[in-house]
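Record 1 of the preview.
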Amino acid sequence: VVNPFGSSLFAQRQTDRMVQLSVQNTSILTVRGIRAEAELSLNNVTIRAMGGVSGLTLPAGSLAQLYDSIVVSDGPAACQNQGVFPAQFNNIFSSGNCADEARGDLVAEPMLGPLKDNGGPTASFAPLSGSPAINNGGPFCRSVDQRGLQRTDGFCDIGAIEFGAARVFDDGFE
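->
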């Protein structure tokens, strides 16, 4: 998902019900990030925000579940949280007030390559060698990455891409 004009994903609460937004195995490059005024679930997602904005904004009243995801920003806070995190495990935040280190979250530079064709149907951010995302995922990781490749080395990577996973054949058929 690439959107230079506004929030890549914006979930707004309705007056009579809570809106739910679930994102899995996705790389997002944005100048606005995700703003969730709703119930948000991210699983193996990589968000890179540019232009000094937060990658993830959770206003009061929002509810977020993050698993094995990366949120990075070139601004002062990768994540701005005034909402509630009932569940979050094994995430990486470049900065901000969202990390819960007791649940395996890290505040660190995730060491990601540029958004590019790393195989698969969509562009993605691949972790670079030495990235803290490699083999630090938890028990909630998806069985395949954004490209459709298996996470098979016994420990999943945080974010949308599994480091070192490769297709056997160029046509994608194994």
